[in-house]
Write a structure and sequence with these properties.
Elements lengths: L3 E10 L2 E11 L4 E5 L6 H9 L6 E6 L2 E2 L7 H4 E4 L11 H12 L5 H10 L15 H14 L4 E5 L7 H16 L3 E5 L10 E4 L3
Parallel strand pairs: 3-8, 3-9, 6-7, 7-8
Antiparallel strand pairs: 1-2, 1-4, 4-5
Helix pairs in contact: 3-5, 4-5
Length: 205
């Protein structure tokens, strides 16, 4: 079974140590909640897992192989979403979704993208420039991306930011669907998310 594993991770920010000896694993059907105070290193840890930041010490393993190894397949099977929506104001919701999928090498036709935007409540706004969307609607473009991307591992930084209660419930249903299909997730969050986390990794303690 393909698993994501952190072994003894440590990271610094300048001269300040954010965390050390962080170890955990996530198996298919599981999600890990990263919690802790602001500045405790949750975003940095997620970026370490995604290969965007090199840890001071420790390893990230995918299917028992170093995730940085191109032969591990981790880059193709993991999707990272930061706390910022990452949306281009001049592009429409549909164009932003298309570009995000193309960057990941995910092929999706117009019909599939329209269906995904409909699933996240943007059917009537899919052609609007992103600058005319609310913060929550912009966040929903990212949910449409998750809906279409076949990645096994979700690495998400505060995915409920700017979402209303309906949007939060939608994300929870999507997470449950993802886990039910054998996916796994590591999520930095201050919010309650259902289904409950398999385990919590708290930084700054």
């Amino acid at each position: 079974m393909t698993a994501l594993e952190a072994r003894g991770l440590a990271c610094m920010r300048g001269d300040v140590r954010l965390f050390r000896d962080v170890s955990f694993s996530a198996m298919p059907g599981e999600w890990i909640a990263l919690t802790g105070a602001n500045g405790s290193g949750k975003t940095t840890l997620l970026r370490c897992l995604a290969g965007l930041v090199l840890p001071e010490a420790g390893d990230v393993l995918w299917d028992s192989r170093p995730a940085r190894d191109t032969q591990s397949g981790f880059r193709e099977q993991a999707i990272y979403a930061g706390h910022a929506a990452g949306i281009k104001d001049d592009l429409s919701a549909a164009e932003n979704l298309r570009d995000a999928l193309q960057l990941r090498g995910v092929a999706a036709g117009e019909h599939a993208m329209d269906e995904a935007l409909g699933q996240v409540g943007l059917a009537s706004r899919r052609r609007l420039p992103a600058r005319r969307l609310s913060a929550g609607q912009r966040r929903r473009i990212g949910l449409a991306r998750l809906w279409l991307d076949p990645a096994i591992a979700w690495l998400l930084d505060e995915p409920l930011t700017a979402l209303d209660a309906e949007g939060e419930a939608l994300f929870c249903r999507m997470l449950e669907r993802h886990l039910g299909r054998g996916g796994l997730a590591v999520i930095a969050t201050h919010h309650g998310i259902m289904p409950p986390a398999t385990r919590e990794v708290r930084l700054g303690t």
